[in-house]
Amino acid sequence: MPGGGGAPINRSFPDCSPPCDFRPALAPSLDKGHHVRLARSKRWGVEFYFSFLRFLLPARCALCQGILGVGSRSVVCGGCWGRVKFLDPPFCPRCGRPFWGHTVVHPPSHLCQGCRARQPQYLLARSALLYERDDPLREVLLLFKHGRRDALGGPLGRLMADRTAPLFGHPTIDAVVPIPLHRKREQDRGFNQSEILARVVGKRLQRPVLRKTLRRIRPTLPQTGKPRERVRNVRGAFAVVKPERIEGRSLLVVDDVFTTGATVNECAKVLMKAGAREVLVYTLARVL
Fold this sequence. Notes:
- By secondary structure, this protein is of the alpha/beta class.
- Helix content is 35%, strand content 14%.
- The strands form 2 sheets. A 5-stranded mixed sheet has the order 1-2-7-6-3. The protein has a two-stranded antiparallel sheet with strand order 4-5.
């Protein structure tokens, strides 16, 4: 009471509100299946989008400009693929040089003039296709190597893989070795075409691909000169890294084009000197 001697009156109201929690609210946990369904939906959406674009703007063959089939992953149509020429016997049993146009029938063991004059360092060489100036294969290879169409490496490599047994029979192959590019050229191009082909062939043969075993230790000029100039151009250009990986093994060296054989012969010489048991050469195309 005012003026009295009692205790002072507490006029404040009790705080009945719940305690404040300033921590951020946690999002409900999502199970693993939800994330899988979400990723699958996004993938289907992207595929539908690009399929719709291909329907509106169909892709065309890089050679004849014909319309490619819906869903085609190649840049070349089936008609142009069908015009490439397979390289079948008769050919030299050592280097694979074709004997086409010869009126004399040679026995299977007959070597060509070049191999009789100087036997190559490799055991034998084979090519899947014939490379001619007016052939569509020439345009395909130009697109592959210089047009940055590395997607062509898949079908070209599968073509090589399909021809391995008919051309080589069933030799003992322990590993596949691609012809290397010099570091600077591979950086400029963005890929090594021989390595792409070697990966496909190695997968079919179920053999390891030794990517870094053979190295090009110095840059070389493009192989466009006469045979002797080509030999001098690549002499001493290759070296073997970790020779224990190839010692006593049978190697299949893979390249894109066989012209005079100077490059593959130099590589075979270096590999044999480093301890390989034997070297076989396989190229996509052979130039006459």
